Amino acid sequence: MAIGIESLFTSALGLSAPWRVENVNLDTARRRIDFDLTCDAKRLACPVCGLLDQGIHDRQKRQWRHLDFFQYEAWLHAEVPRVACSGCGKTTQAQVPWAREGSGFTALFEALALSLCRELPVRQAAALLRCTDKQLWRRIEHYVGAARTLDDMSAVRVIGIDETSLRKGQNYITVVHDLDKKRLLFACEGRDHQTVVNFAQDLQAHGGKPEQVSHVCQDMSAAYAKGVAQALTQAQISYDRFHVVAMANEAMDEVRRHETSTQPQAIKAALGDNDRKLLKSLTWGMRRNPDGWSVKQTNAMHWLQHSTLRSARAWRLKMALRTVYANAARHNNATQAKSELKAWLSWAARCRLAPFKKLASTLKQRLDAVVRGMLDNRSNAYVEAMNGLLQQAKRAARGFKTASNFIAIAYLRMSKLKHLPSNPLERAVPKYNVLIHRCL
Ligand SMILES: [Zn+2]
Fold first, then answer.
1. 74 three-class SS
2. With contact defined as beta carbons under 8 Å apart, do 405 and 111 qualify?
3. How many angstroms separate the alpha carbon of residue 50 from the centre of ligand 1?
4. Distance between CA atoms of residues 350 and 121, nearest Å
5. Which of 205, 299, 308, 402 is the most exposed, fewest CB within 10 Å of its CB?
6. Which CATH code of 3.40.50.2300, 3.30.70.1520, 3.30.420.10, 1.20.200.10 fits the domain covering 158-240+378-414?
7. pLDDT tens digits, residue range 73-104?
8. Residue 259 has what pLDDT?
9. CA angle at residue 87 from 82 to 88, to 5 degrees?
10. pLDDT of amino acid 435
């Protein structure tokens, strides 16, 4: 028995009674395929109160964009019944099974769009799907919001708090990660102590207990420490490697900048003709690990180490601090780590380089928390990885870089939310495999 094209598409679209495909119209010139759907029911249940067998008041024409059919853009059209209820007295449009209320996209199209936005910048995803980025942002916010409502944070015990900025030095966002589950828990604008209080409230709203948080890994911000003391009363703070080494890098850069601006003649004389380029190689050579040096950087760094410049001392101090951290990770011995760190602090305090003296005093004031951070590999590697993901999220939000867009895309990509729709194409793959195996 031959199957009509309409009933073929009725099952391909996953429709069941009372809905079916009534008409299929393929327009090759416009690269479009249009499906007219119809609802055979004469009476329906009330969408509001559920009362069965209610009369249909009228039907309203609506359309939805669907997943492409090969190279054709697919659209669904239907006259959707409005049910006049004798029970609650309301006249309400019936729910259609292929789309959520009010959306001009089918649920499968939205699920695909969401999957693309996890991998691509939103603008690029919109171009691929031939829709506007605004339409995608609205959907990201809707689905992320819905999935976060159902998110379970009851097991959260170890967190990392960090700040990031949308523009250099402004539009700060505070991000809180679960360091055990390695996922983003919370993000909000600002970087004051209130952000930590806001997190504690959000944690409670998702079944978590602020007093259950035992360990917070963060940067040196006094504001975060204040927030932790106020809202996460049982938590012990530690300062992770990433932030401490970043501070040492900043101190080193400050010494180099100061020296190149106050003693340019001495440096230029030592560097020879090609000074501008060598100076650049020097800047990057000092920041980078020796195993990542280019030939030019190796030459510049070789020259630096044989000079009597303050920059050379600053670089040695930074490298020594890295070694202290590497040793702590290798031996995992708190006493040894503490004594090596103290030795470094006393060197830095005597080094006659103001930025390092300042850094030494900052670290000394928080010695125990710094040592805790030295031994905590769980947070150290993760905080660095998360920074990379946050940068990607910023690129994804480019052109629409408002705080709420950035936060939504960060949740979509980094929160491991369990209640998001899954990619319809990925789900389809195993089915096709089954078909292929059957054919063979
Ligand atoms: Zn009703």
1. strand
2. no
3. 6
4. 49
5. 308
6. 3.30.420.10
7. 999 999 999 999 999 999 999 999 999 988 99
8. 87
9. 70
10. 36
The alpha carbon of 85 and the centre of ligand 1 are apart by a number of angstroms equal to 5
CA of 82 to the centre of ligand 1 (A): 11
Section 396-423 average pLDDT: 88
Residue 431: the pLDDT is 40
Best CA proximity match to 237, nearest among 226, 245, 225: 225
What are the residues whose beta carbon lies below 5 Å from ligand 1 (ion)? 46, 48-49, 51, 85, 87-88
Task: Convert the pLDDT of each residue in 373-392 to its tens digit.
Answer: 998 766 667 777 888 888 88
Q: What is the pTM of this model?
A: 0.83
Neighbours of 132 (CB within 10 A): 12
- In sequence order, the 6+-apart residues with CB closer than 8 A to the CB of 16 are 97
Cα 282 to ligand 1 centroid, rounded to whole Å: 75
Helices 241-262 + 354-365 axis angle, to 10: 160
User: 189 C-alpha vs ligand 1 centroid, how far in Å?
Assistant: 42
CB 186 within 8 A of CB 206: no
- What distance in angstroms lies between residue 86's CA and the mean position of ligand 1's atoms? 7
Distance of CA 39 from the midpoint of ligand 1 (Å): 19
